[in-house]
Amino acid sequence: MSTVSRASLVSGAFVKLADALVGEYDVVDVLHTLVEQSVELLDAEAAGLLIADQDGILQVLASTSEESQLVEILQSEAGVGPCVDAFRTGVVVTIDDIASVEGDRYPDFQAAALSQGFRSVHAIPMRLRPNTIGALNLFRIQTGALSEEDAAIGQALADVATISILQERTVRENAAVTEQLQRALNSRVLIEQAKGVIAQRSQLNMNDAFNRLRTYARAHNESMHESAEKVISNEVRV
User: Fold this and answer.
1) Residues 8-25: pLDDT tens digits?
2) How far, CA to CA in Å, does 22 sit from each of 115, 155, 161, 167, 219?
3) Is residue 169 predicted with pLDDT exceeding 50?
């Protein structure tokens, strides 16, 4: 890839994120844009993002594939994994070779990641000053670490996502931040339900069902939460 095209892709990614932040933005849509751009830009085959809920428990909020979502959910439920460590410590966690990780460190994560074809992972904390609100996971099908350039771009994307969650004008204190994060997590539950309805009705896989729901929401100038509610209640057929 040439330097010019690389620079163009990077600037384009941040333009897309900035565009998603305009006006009454949809947090879930912004974070899906983040993980999609992470895969587009970086040497990774899949990306997933976990956010801490009001009880401090990590929940999957965005992923680029059902495979990465499965691994993210397992980390969340087990309470262990590189993404969990990145969230708890506030520092990047890189595993160059998942197969070589000692068996007692992340046994469930290791088995799940390898079963989905992932061989390395780069976990980036989502932090703003002393607060860490979640983490971004970049999964690769090859062993080895991300390049320094890719790692820096990944951190920048994670920083933009963090700011996007915390920047809303109504956020003035930690309680408001927690409430906003919980609203985003609740929206994710509705969106997952709507994806299932769309997938069943139209014989689509879950990724295509999500894209159809997002396209509908954007076309009708409403949040994905609102569109998902309409799908679930049979008010619309997407």
Assistant:
1) 777 776 776 666 566 556
2) 39, 22, 13, 12, 16
3) no
Segments making up each domain of the chain, as ranges:
3-167, 170-238
Matching CATH number, 3-167, of 3.30.450.40, 2.40.37.20, 3.30.565.10, 3.40.630.40:
3.30.450.40
Estimate the crossing angle of helix 66-78 against helix 107-115, to 10 degrees: 170
Give residue 32's Cα distance to chain centre: 6
Residue 235: partners with Cβ closer than 8 Å, 6 or more residues away = 229
Neighbouring CB atoms inside 10 A of 92's CB total: 19
Q: Which residues contact 106 (CB under 8 A, 6 or more apart)?
A: 80, 81, 82
Q: Strands 93-95 and 46-52, how do they pair? A: unpaired
Q: For domain 170-238, give the fold.
A: Arc Repressor Mutant, subunit A (1.10.10)
Q: How many angstroms separate the first and last alpha carbons of the chain?
A: 38
Report pLDDT for 159: 84
Of the candidates 145, 138, 70, 143, the residue with the CA atom closest to the CA atom of residue 108: 70
Residue whose entry in the numeric block shows the structure tokens 């099908």: 141
C-alpha–C-alpha distance, residues 32 and 45, integer Å: 15
Please tell me the pTM assigned to this model.
0.67
Q: Are 124 and 139 in contact (CB under 8 A)?
A: no
In terms of residues, how long is the chain?
238
